[in-house]
Amino acid sequence: MREFRSLLIDNARLRIPGLEVLMLAAHGHMPELASVSQHRHVWSQAILYLSGGGRQTFANHWARVEAGTLVMMPPGVSHSFERLGRRAPLCLLIDFRFRGARQRHATVTSLSRSELSQVRQNLAQLVKLHKDAHEGPRCESAVVILQTLMMLLRSAGWLDRAPALPDHPRNRALIGLVGKLEPSAPLLETVTQSGYQRDHLNRLIKRHTGLTLGQHRAKRRLALAKKLLSEGVQVGSVADAVGLPDQSYFARWFRRQTGVTPSALQRSASPTTRAPA
């Protein structure tokens, strides 16, 4: 990953309807730099941690970040970073303008292994294509940059996933499998029911929905967890219900996805109780 430290495309000027890429950089924080002070941008920013990690603060929340963590920051949101440990993190930063971004919330999510691998492959390709950091991107570079950002936008929920599967018996079967996927169910059960090998099944589902089987389950887990927590269900019971019975692990996972702890979400969802006059 060392070669990514010098990658900088600061005059991208890439535009498609509703989206403009301003800058792309892949670099590591300087070893002596332990933190990035609070700041904000008039544009949106995608921050993907490729290695290392720390504590990302934004608005009134914070999240633990590590390799594979994606932070999507809309315009005007104050954010800062504090390194944890000795290893300086390596990050991919993309500054962009996105139609409707000011109505979005800052999001923290985790890329799958295949998505993170694809990003690294894209960066390696950009290093080869972008020989002079002061030149604008070549046509091939522009395609790779846009593909990378679109994937990150979809992972963060800022863009809709790929179109639904065409109406075909096999596709209907795949949709049925995804539709019946329980948040707490082992993925092996669904893979066995499908009759496909796991990798092949993931490729089929992701090709048409933009999500792997595991990501569909994670999405349902998060939705169920939010629902139960907002209803006042105890954190331990919620962890069991979504298939993450280790309460500490569940709390870390939930915070990484949302930027808040399960208890904090419960408090914010609880109606204010007033003492009788």
Give a written overview of the molecule.
With 277 residues, the protein is α+β, with helices and mostly antiparallel strands. The chain folds into 2 domains: 2-155, Sandwich (Jelly Rolls); 168-271, Arc Repressor Mutant, subunit A (Orthogonal Bundle), CATH 1.10.10.60. 40% of the residues lie in helices and 22% in strands. It contains 9 helices and 11 strands. The strands form 2 sheets. Strands 1, 2, 3, 5, 8, 10 and 11 form a 7-stranded antiparallel sheet that branches. Strands 4-9-6-7 form a 4-stranded antiparallel sheet. The radius of gyration is 20 Å and the shape is globular. Mean pLDDT is 80; it is low at 1-5 and 272-277.
Task: Explain briefly what this protein structure is.
Helices cover 40% and strands 22% of the residues. With 277 residues, it is of the alpha+beta class.
Question: What would you call the structural class?
Answer: alpha+beta
CATH class of the largest domain: Mainly Beta
The percent range for strand residues is 15-25%
**How many alpha or pi helices?**
9
- CATH homolog superfamily of the largest domain: Jelly Rolls
Number of strands: 11
Distance between the termini: 64 Å
Percentage of residues in helical conformation:
25-40%
Shape: globular
CATH topology of the largest domain: Jelly Rolls
Domain count: 2
Main beta-sheet annotation: 7 strands, antiparallel
Question: CATH architecture of the largest domain, please?
Answer: Sandwich
Radius of gyration: 20 Å
Mean pLDDT: 80
Low-confidence stretches: 1-5, 272-277
Give, in order, the helices and strands: EEEEEEEEEEEHHHHHHHHH
